[in-house]
Design brief:
The chain is α+β, with helices and mostly antiparallel strands. Helices cover 47% and strands 15% of the residues. The chain has five helices and four strands. The chain has a two-stranded antiparallel sheet. A two-stranded antiparallel sheet has the order 3-4. A hairpin with a 6-residue loop joins β3 and β4. It is globular, with a radius of gyration of 17 Å. The model has no long low-confidence stretch (mean pLDDT 76).
Length: 133
Amino acid sequence: MGLYDRWCESTKEEDKRKHYWTYVEKDGGRDAISDDLAETIRAHYDRLERIAEDVKRLGFKVASEILSTAMPQTTKGRSGDLGEILATELVEEEIGLRVPVRRLRYKDGRNMAMRGDDFIGAGYDAAGEKLWL
């Protein structure tokens, strides 16, 4: 079960070519995803295998300091990054596209907003013949 399925109730409406999706947090939804969300956030900043290697090699305290240097320190920076992470996860979970590049790994600075598109999703049509971006 995906992050959003455990976290929120959703309604989806279509009006001609427009789609309206609404997500409302379930009672206890935040608790249900808290551990997975923390791992998801870390994965957007670096590959989980590399984080695990760093923690093992450097010890918890030193690794924590290294990882925290990549995390935004301002409220605005954290909010922007979280929005990008949640949007990327929603695209993968609900639309079914794969977002192969986790852009937060390539930020210019930890408190700087990303420029350009938040994500690029890729996938194939139902027949597996046409590539969708």
